[in-house]
Design goal:
The complex is a heterodimer of chains A (about 375) and B (about 140). With about 375 residues, chain A is of the alpha/beta class. Chain A is about 35% helix and about 20% strand. In chain A, the strands form 2 sheets. A 9-stranded mixed β-sheet of chain A has the order 3-2-4-7-1-8-11-10-9, with helices on both faces. The radius of gyration of chain A is 19 Å and the shape is globular. The two termini of chain A are about 15 Å apart. Chain B is mostly beta strands. Chain B has one domain. In chain B, the strands form 2 sheets. A 5-stranded antiparallel β-sheet of chain B has the order 6-5-4-7-8. In chain B, strands 2-1-3 form a 3-stranded antiparallel β-sheet. In chain B, strand 1 and strand 2 form a beta hairpin. The chains are: A alpha/beta (about 375), B mainly beta (about 140). Bound molecules: zinc ion. The site of zinc ion has 8 residues of chain B, from loops.
Chain lengths: ~375, ~140
Amino acid sequence: MSGLRDATVVGVAESDKIGVVPDKSSLQLQGEATLNALADAGLKLSDVEGVFSAGFRPTEVAEYLGIQPRYFDGTHVGGSSFVVHLGHAAEAIASGRIDVALIVGGESGRSRVGLPAGFSGSHSSAQSMEGQFENPYGLPGAIGGYAMACARHMHLYGTTSEQLAEIAVAARQWAGLNPRAYKREPLTVGEVLASPIISWPFRKFDCCLVTDAAGAVVLTSLDRARDLKKKPVRVIGWGEGSDHQLISQIPDLTSGPGRISGPDAFAMAGVRHEDIDVAQVYDSFTYTVLTSLEDLGFCKKGEGGDFVSGGRIAPGGDFPLNTSGGGLSYTHPGMFGIFTIIENVRQLRGDFVNQSLRQVAGAKLGLVHGTGGKLSATGTVILAAD
Amino acid sequence: MTDYLKPLPKSDPVTAPFWESLHRGKVQVQCCGDCKIFVFYPRALCPACGSRKLAWTPVSGKGHIYSLTIVAPGRGPDIFKNDSPYVVTLVELDEGCRMMSNIVDVDAEDVKIGMAVEIVYDCVTEDVTLPKFRPVIPSKTSPHL
Ligand SMILES: [Zn+2]
């Protein structure tokens, strides 16, 4: 790292309201999240030099916010985009190209006010590869792709619906501790298993929420961060990876590109799996968590079902995971990645220190992992409390 | 005019021989002249080795179910909602490449990973034939779908 600066996260926030916000457009939600994250950091819009966004182009977001960026990145790889942006923003800060970076995402996913072009649903042309070789068969969007992956995982490794349900139940228990979470009432494994099948093997409670929400993350150098309001959180390792776009082209249906992004992030950070105190692993579906933990190397391929069972990932368990309640119970507009960063930064700053189980006690090292598309692209970032 | 309202593929110069082979009822897939793998979807180059020597090659149309999902009533894309439940599958052909399809001529609940299947030429319009698959030994419960 000689010659490079330390990149730090100094501000994180959601939009003013999240959940059902029918009176606000997608860009308005992003504007609120931006102002709230800058206020969290003690910085101003005019300090922002770099804009990182997906869904809306960085130029659309910058125009709305009145920013004239000298650095931008519109890498759009689905819900993992913002975790990928976090690594890219850290590089831009570390190299000295810019001093302040803004990552912003989110939309009116539920109320559908002012959505970015191409939001959800298949808009691929009949002559695209998806249009020719997938759309004629009626695969129900992301859920169908992940469902096929999960079905094969169950076939090969004996993973059960009960094990998947444990992931949904743990998320709900964390959400019960988070006043901002959309779904907070208790949920049991039995209730998950009794919920209707959507796209077998997935039931209703295996699937993420659809909400209105935006989030923003502000980065700067560690030197500058020391003069700001909040405890800096350093970005110490990052990686990204992809091994397909269409689910029919995935090399191995039971593994994802976390096996590319994870080792890169760990190697750069110079830490081990057992050093991680708190993790946010994108939960578009319960199965996404299970396969991601395997791909990242927290357990062997096929052992994810056992790993998540027995309350290990629930409040009080020895592997605190998705501590906001995740996309399954806290919030999930169209792309969730930005919220994995927000929650992990809050944990590492100790924002919930007086709130009992809500705070992972003494959390110093955190992992954020985003999965986008249909297991198509991942970003992994390791964060450290300063 | 056709009354088929579901999404139809539109071929391009590289993929046209595949769609034409289905129309003739004799499926063909590209095979790499250098590394010998079968390539699907059709491409201008082999994704395994980069070779441009891809030859259209007749294949058996037989394979097995690599994975599947069963779409519950009312849950698919709008135009499919009246079909539910239906099976979307990834079929691995005996030649090694995979393609997305639907499984027909069997009850959805009876479709399993690993099941041997064979191609069915589904002439959905005058111009378009889709590759569907059915179990090699049809289920006794449902003679047709
Ligand atoms: Zn080849």
